[in-house]
Protein backbone atom coordinates (compact mmCIF):
# COMPACT_ATOMS: atom_id res chain seq x y z
CA UNK A 1 0.00 0.00 0.00
CA UNK A 2 1.15 3.54 -0.76
CA UNK A 3 -0.24 6.30 1.45
CA UNK A 4 -0.10 10.02 0.70
CA UNK A 5 1.18 11.64 3.89
CA UNK A 6 -0.75 14.48 5.55
CA UNK A 7 2.43 16.63 5.58
CA UNK A 8 2.13 16.90 1.79
CA UNK A 9 1.54 20.52 0.85
CA UNK A 10 1.84 22.15 -2.53
CA UNK A 11 5.06 21.08 -4.19
CA UNK A 12 6.05 18.90 -1.21
CA UNK A 13 4.70 15.41 -1.77
CA UNK A 14 5.20 12.73 0.85
CA UNK A 15 4.39 9.02 0.74
CA UNK A 16 4.67 6.05 3.02
CA UNK A 17 5.20 2.66 1.38
CA UNK A 18 3.82 -0.15 3.55
CA UNK A 19 4.03 -3.91 3.04
CA UNK A 20 3.98 -5.37 -0.45
CA UNK A 21 3.56 -2.78 -3.19
CA UNK A 22 1.59 -3.80 -6.26
CA UNK A 23 1.76 -2.36 -9.74
CA UNK A 24 -1.73 -0.94 -9.10
CA UNK A 25 -0.54 0.86 -5.95
CA UNK A 26 2.16 2.47 -8.02
CA UNK A 27 0.08 3.36 -11.07
CA UNK A 28 -3.14 4.32 -9.24
CA UNK A 29 -1.81 6.04 -6.11
CA UNK A 30 1.83 7.10 -6.40
CA UNK A 31 2.22 8.29 -9.99
CA UNK A 32 -1.12 10.17 -10.27
CA UNK A 33 -0.40 12.16 -7.10
CA UNK A 34 3.11 12.92 -8.32
CA UNK A 35 1.87 13.94 -11.77
CA UNK A 36 -0.75 16.26 -10.24
CA UNK A 37 1.90 17.98 -8.13
CA UNK A 38 4.15 18.42 -11.18
CA UNK A 39 1.26 19.77 -13.27
CA UNK A 40 0.22 22.19 -10.50
CA UNK A 41 3.62 23.35 -9.26
CA UNK A 42 6.22 22.57 -11.90
CA UNK A 43 9.01 21.69 -9.46
CA UNK A 44 8.37 18.98 -6.87
CA UNK A 45 10.16 17.72 -3.79
CA UNK A 46 9.49 14.13 -2.82
CA UNK A 47 9.55 12.48 0.61
CA UNK A 48 9.28 8.67 0.68
CA UNK A 49 9.17 6.59 3.88
CA UNK A 50 10.10 2.99 3.04
CA UNK A 51 10.77 1.84 6.58
CA UNK A 52 7.74 -0.53 6.44
CA UNK A 53 8.21 -1.59 2.80
CA UNK A 54 8.34 -5.35 2.28
CA UNK A 55 8.67 -5.38 -1.52
CA UNK A 56 12.10 -5.53 -2.97
CA UNK A 57 11.70 -7.35 -6.26
CA UNK A 58 9.34 -4.90 -7.93
CA UNK A 59 12.06 -2.86 -9.59
CA UNK A 60 11.14 0.11 -11.75
CA UNK A 61 7.48 -0.59 -12.57
CA UNK A 62 6.99 2.40 -14.78
CA UNK A 63 10.20 3.00 -16.73
CA UNK A 64 8.37 4.86 -19.47
CA UNK A 65 7.15 7.46 -16.95
CA UNK A 66 10.52 7.64 -15.21
CA UNK A 67 12.20 8.18 -18.57
CA UNK A 68 9.77 10.97 -19.38
CA UNK A 69 11.03 14.53 -19.08
CA UNK A 70 8.53 15.16 -16.26
CA UNK A 71 10.89 13.52 -13.79
CA UNK A 72 13.25 16.43 -14.39
CA UNK A 73 10.86 18.44 -12.24
CA UNK A 74 11.59 16.35 -9.15
CA UNK A 75 14.19 18.55 -7.54
CA UNK A 76 14.82 16.68 -4.28
CA UNK A 77 14.06 13.30 -2.79
CA UNK A 78 14.33 12.34 0.85
CA UNK A 79 14.06 8.61 1.44
CA UNK A 80 13.56 7.33 4.98
CA UNK A 81 14.31 3.73 5.89
CA UNK A 82 16.50 1.38 7.84
CA UNK A 83 20.14 0.43 7.31
CA UNK A 84 19.20 -2.60 5.21
CA UNK A 85 17.24 -0.45 2.74
CA UNK A 86 20.06 2.07 2.55
CA UNK A 87 22.44 -0.72 1.58
CA UNK A 88 20.00 -2.19 -0.98
CA UNK A 89 19.36 1.16 -2.66
CA UNK A 90 23.05 1.50 -3.47
CA UNK A 91 22.81 -1.54 -5.75
CA UNK A 92 19.33 -1.58 -7.26
CA UNK A 93 16.97 0.66 -9.18
CA UNK A 94 13.66 1.16 -7.37
CA UNK A 95 10.44 2.71 -8.55
CA UNK A 96 10.50 5.60 -6.08
CA UNK A 97 13.94 6.91 -7.11
CA UNK A 98 14.03 9.36 -9.97
CA UNK A 99 17.19 10.29 -11.86
CA UNK A 100 18.65 13.78 -12.01
CA UNK A 101 17.43 14.86 -8.60
CA UNK A 102 19.19 15.58 -5.33
CA UNK A 103 18.67 12.41 -3.28
CA UNK A 104 19.41 11.83 0.40
CA UNK A 105 18.75 8.82 2.58
CA UNK A 106 17.71 9.24 6.21
CA UNK A 107 17.31 6.63 8.93
CA UNK A 108 13.85 6.23 10.48
CA UNK A 109 14.91 7.99 13.69
CA UNK A 110 15.89 11.03 11.57
CA UNK A 111 12.55 11.50 9.85
CA UNK A 112 12.23 15.12 11.02
CA UNK A 113 15.68 15.86 9.55
CA UNK A 114 14.40 14.49 6.24
CA UNK A 115 11.37 16.80 6.30
CA UNK A 116 13.58 19.76 7.27
CA UNK A 117 15.95 19.05 4.38
CA UNK A 118 13.14 18.59 1.88
CA UNK A 119 11.65 21.96 2.95
CA UNK A 120 15.00 23.78 2.96
CA UNK A 121 15.08 26.78 0.61
CA UNK A 122 11.36 26.70 -0.19
CA UNK A 123 11.12 30.41 -1.13
CA UNK A 124 13.32 29.58 -4.13
CA UNK A 125 10.86 26.93 -5.22
CA UNK A 126 7.97 29.34 -4.99
CA UNK A 127 9.80 31.70 -7.36
CA UNK A 128 10.45 28.82 -9.78
CA UNK A 129 6.79 27.79 -9.59
CA UNK A 130 5.72 31.32 -10.52
CA UNK A 131 7.87 31.09 -13.63
CA UNK A 132 5.93 27.99 -14.76
CA UNK A 133 2.54 29.69 -14.43
UniProtKB/TrEMBL annotation:
Gene3D superfamilies: SpoIIaa-like domains. SUPFAM superfamilies: SpoIIaa-like. InterPro entries: SpoIIAA-like (IPR021866), SpoIIAA-like_sf (IPR038396), STAS_dom_sf (IPR036513). This is STAS/SEC14 domain-containing protein. It comes from Methanogenium marinum.
Amino acid sequence: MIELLPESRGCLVGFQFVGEITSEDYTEDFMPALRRAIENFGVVRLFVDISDLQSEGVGAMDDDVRGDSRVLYIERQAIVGDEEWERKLNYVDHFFIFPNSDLRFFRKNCEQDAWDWIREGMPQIRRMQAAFQ
